What we know:
Blueprint: E1 28-36, E2 86-87, E3 90-94, E4 98-99, E5 105-112, E6 131-136, E7 143-145, E8 148-149, E9 154-159, E10 165-176, E11 182-193, E12 208-211, E13 214-220, E14 227-236, E15 239-240, E16 253-258, E17 264-270, E18 281-287, E19 292-302, E20 305-315
Parallel strand pairs: 4-11
Antiparallel strand pairs: 1-20, 2-3, 3-5, 5-9, 6-7, 6-10, 8-9, 10-11, 12-13, 13-14, 14-15, 14-18, 16-17, 16-19, 17-18, 19-20
Amino acid sequence: xxxxxxxxxxxxxxxxxxxxxxxxxxxxxxxxxxxxxxxxxxxxxxxxxxxxxxxxxxxxxxxxxxxxxxxxxxxxxxxxxxxxxxxxxxxxxxxxxxxxxxxxxxxxxxxxxxxxxxxxxxxxxxxxxxxxxxxxxxxxxxxxxxxxxxxxxxxxxxxxxxxxxxxxxxxxxxxxxxxxxxxxxxxxxxxxxxxxxxxxxxxxxxxxxxxxxxxxxxxxxxxxxxxxxxxxxxxxxxxxxxxxxxxxxxxxxxxxxxxxxxxxxxxxxxxxxxxxxxxxxxxxxxxxxxxxxxxxxxxxxxxxxxxxxxxxxxxx
Length: 316
């Protein structure tokens, strides 16, 4: 089944600049996500079964970013808040806009350029050419997965089953502009899952959470529109954890979604990984575009198992 691709040549880029560093203490809510040790928390899409050639991933370019020391393929923060399907002449085009409930499925999409043709040249971002996120409007049902690309520029990824409700799906990637410069973008589209659904209230603020026997303690000061440092300290049964394994070329991956409009933010890691293992204290650069409550998903790996904890962060 072929996918209909629409393109628009005119788009707007929303820039976010780091303001003067003014610190305001905020409460950080950390609550356990129901998923625990599953490799990817729950989400789903009803996409056509792949009928395409074997995925062909582009080789990392010599001009790709090598962000912070020891973290190859880490890019600058993408512009905007991820709430538009089109920016800088690039458009995120999913195959469908509705998903089946309570069943795993395959999700397909393309990134279309200004000429209307699918884009096939991407740069690595934290070791992957494409990051796909899905979250429900009440900030539950999170899923972070990594699609593979076919030669025609169509990306495909399996998704876990999700509950009925309204969702948003995000494509986070790095491509190049007309001048050959790296261009990090996060584009998104709304999707729906048919059926009755109940809204899950956002948990109250807390600075600690437990997941799979681990305790995470968060500390930091965050103000909208300014870069601040958040730290995550990991322990188990009162003992600091020092055997964290690299996940996406870092010891923890943090992504966040704003309550209400589902604006997106990626909290970039600070520091390098090593063969000796990481922890117990991890640092991240937090750049949140707006004030309010943000649901932050903390993913880290030990003994080849991916753990996911959840934080409600209030930004002033």
